[in-house]
Amino acid sequence: MSPEVVAHRGASTRRPEHTLAAYELALRQGADGLECDVRLTKDGHLVCLHDRTIDRTSGGSGVVSAMTLDELRRHDFGSWHGGEPAEVLTLEALLGLAADHGTRLFIETKHPVRYGSLVERTLAGQLDRHRVDVVMMSFSVFAVHRFKKLKPEVPTVLLYDRLWPKTRPRFADYAGPGVHLLRRHPDRGQGVYTWTADAPADIALCRERGVRFLATNNPDETRGHLADNLTPDQP
Ligand code: G3P
Ligand code: CA
Q1: Which of 40, 96, 153, 235 is deepest in the core (most CB within 10 A)?
Q2: 79, 89, 97, 223 from 139: Cα distances, Å
Q3: What's the CA gap between 132 and 194, in Å, rounded?
Q4: C-alpha of residue 151 to centroid of ligand 2, in Å
């Protein structure tokens, strides 16, 4: 079976990452799921941002956890990428978009962060108010563990970067190896979540190994490569 295509930070090659425009394009391109990173603002809102600061992805600068949502809203998160000006995207808005389209949302909590476990507690509370198919993810084993205790019904992914242990804790429903780990372990990959595969050979590798969820910055091209049925050793 072909992997499900998950738009990593939206269609983030073509649009500025984590903006509404990036997610709307991903949906138009037929992505099966949407991925986002979340961080807590000073006043307790979950916003979709990858970095600790807004310096790389906006016209401004500052630490996300030290800014209120209103302060973040004064900055433009689109123009740095050459796109239209864009407001910071709240998780609330992204949940609304995912609900409207019936699309699965993969939400990654970042750690270590100033607010620690409050991130997972806030996320769990927010999900209670929405009917969205969600998967929770983190590189932090502690974050995945405490979220599973709060919301046992929500599937979880434990992400792996440097090492990919043979066994995973019971509270992690899926392993989430980077595609570099898939290359390193020729006998593994069945049923996992893999990030971030954009190159044709990596996409072919994911399909060949039986990866279940494939995170990509380029949903339309990735769908095309999957349809082409390439093998990993083809250029
Ligand atoms: O989908 C998981 C992947 O996004 C983890 O890496 O740094 O892009 O959040 P990062
Ligand atoms: Ca991420």
Answers
A1: 40
A2: 30, 22, 25, 27
A3: 22
A4: 20
Q: Mean pLDDT, to the nearest integer, of 81-106?
A: 97
| Residue 71 resides in a domain | no
Ligand 1 site, residue 37, Cβ cutoff 6 A: yes
The reply to whether 190 falls in a domain is: yes
* CA 54 to centroid of ligand 1, rounded, Å: 17
Q: Which of 223, 7, 221, 1 has its CA nearest to residue 104?
A: 7
Q: Would the CB of 197 count as within 6 Å of ligand 1? A: no
Indicate whether 102 belongs to any domain. Answer: yes
pLDDT per residue over 143-157, tens digit each? Answer: 999 999 999 999 999
Contact 107, 48 (CB under 8 A): no
Question: For residue 96, what are the domain limits?
Answer: 4-45+92-228
Q: Which residue out of 49, 138, 157, 159 has the highest number of ligand 1 atoms within 8 Å of its CB and is therefore the one to mutate?
A: 159
Task: State the total domains in the chain.
Answer: 1
Is the separation of the CB atoms in 179 and 205 below 8 Å?
yes
Give me the CATH number covering residue 169.
3.20.20.190
Distance (Å) from CA 140 to ligand 2 centroid:
12
Residue 91: φ, ψ to 5°:
-65, -35
Q: So what's the pLDDT on residue 1? A: 86
Which pLDDT band, with edges at 50, 70 and 90, does 70 fall under?
A: very high
- Closest Cα to atom 2 of ligand 1: 195
